[in-house]
Amino acid sequence: MRASQSDIQGRLLQDLSQIAPGGHAEETDWSEDADFFAKHLPVQRHDRWMLDPGIILVLGGRGSGKTQLFQLLLRLRDPSGLSPGTSARHRVRIVPGFTTFGDRFPQRDVVVDFLKASADDDRALRAAWVGFMAGALLQGEPAVGPAVVGTLGSRLAGLLTSALPRLELWLPEVRERYQDVCYSLDEAHRVLQQRAAHVILTYDDLDVLARRTHAVGRFVKELLGIWLDRSRRWDHIRAKVFLRNDIFDPEQFAFSDSSKLRAKAVALSWDGELLYRLVLKRLLNGPEAATWRAWLGDDLSQGVVRNEIPWGVVPHTREDHHRAFMARLIGPWMGADKRRGDSYRWFLNHLQDAHGEIAPRSFLMLFRAAAERQMRGSRYPPDDPDRLLSPQEVQGALEGVSQSRIAELAEEFPWVDSLREPLAGTAVPVKRSDLRKLLRDVRWEGRAIPPPDPEPDGVIQTLLGIGVLRTTDDGRLHVPYIYLYGFRLKLKGGIQRPR
């Protein structure tokens, strides 16, 4: 029997409500590679950076996809395919150089305690990194084993192979024999040269450590200093360090030749077309893919979406396709006419931070939250039977997404929670002098990591730097929508809040 229009709407809404995890959950624990590839949107410039030997540092904010790319490299059986022509020249192996995911490296509490105790001991920090390098290569590239063992001996090499998580067992000896360990890494590189093999050591979760101690800045500085030096020495062992934007402080990393890091760093960014392709990618690879194709009809013409191994269906869509998708989903306007704004731009305008950046996770979450509201709200089915979502439900969903984004922000910067009460009810834009007065009353006691500069002007500068605040043309301070509702701020001029 043919499904009714209401049944089709219900199935599509249910599918849309599963497009992203609830709350601000991470998406790094998918157990099946097929599920991972179905959800991942391959972005040409991002993929090219992954194997570019000149790129050491990959920067991005929370939810920008750093860990997604880290996982991608580890899951691809032939990562050389990310860069056309690479596989014909040499074999590439991806090896984790550090992560708190899994049990290959020390638990995060162990590393945090080490950093707190060794924050001013650069020799200890460097020794930890070269120990992790040697251990990662021994575990991930067996061919280098004999060369490393020949230099370090079976005892230390054995500890770095089988007891890498036990930092206290091997770190004292690595520190004592630092030059030997460095020489063993040179020997490992010679083996890879002879075999025409390449290893990329990948580093993630350093921002997780930053939530617990400011000392991670010194730790990262030593890591980047080592790799900046080794990039001139090695061409068969490379690094990809995935790092949060704010941790990469050029002033803090002012070591010899540190300016050259800028040429070896890239920043992950998502424009509107990539974000909409990500939404379509997930829908067209999900359980209701055929229903979506039928419902969208000619909006997704043949050739615009293609099957590509291992990604599944990949949309190669443009703005006109995305506008048609949103008009089908919600309608062309976020109300009765264009005075409320067009639906395509509304999503982009209301989810960007003060730097104009949009986190893919927030973008997906607004679709999810709107679908959930639609299913349980009084407007299900929508007033217009040809649509799936009512503009009112989308607007109402924004507040929850904003709250989730603030919760994400507070995970990276725990002191942000202390701003909620003092700022609640404040109308923006606000004069800097008025905001300064509000911030004077904030108490940072009980925060494991207070703001870098807890004085009002210091907090304002930090909030400007991380995209929570922007300066208006008349010198006042404004807050973008994505943070506005989570902080319970008000817009001057009486603009209605989402319901």
Describe the strand arrangement of the main beta sheet, using strand numbers. 2-3-4-1-5
Helix content: 40-55%
Number of strands: 11
Span between termini:
38 Å
Total tally of structural domains: 3
Question: Could you list the spans in which at least 5 consecutive residues all have pLDDT below 50?
Answer: 24-29, 84-89
Determine the mean pLDDT.
87
Strand fraction equals: 5-15%
Give the structural class.
alpha/beta
The main β sheet shows up as:
5 strands, parallel
Tally of alpha and pi helices: 23
Cα radius of gyration in angstroms: 25 Å
What gross morphology would you assign?
A: globular
What can you tell me about this protein's structure?
This protein has 499 residues and is of the alpha/beta class. It has 23 helices and eleven strands. It has helices spanning 5-16, 33-39, 44-51, 66-75, 86-89, 108-118, 122-140, 145-152, 154-162, 167-176, 178-194, 206-210, 216-233, 272-283, 289-296, 319-329, 343-351, 360-376, 391-412, 420-423, 432-440, 456-465, 481-484, and strands at 57-60, 91-98, 197-203, 237-244, 265-267, 305-308, 312-315, 427-428, 470-471, 477-478, 490-491. Helix 7 crosses helix 13 (216-233) and helix 8 runs antiparallel to helix 11. Residues 24-29 and 84-89 have low confidence and may be disordered.
Features:
two-stranded antiparallel ribbon; Arc Repressor Mutant, subunit A; alpha/beta; five-stranded parallel sheet; 499 residues; 11 strands; 3 domains; 23 helices
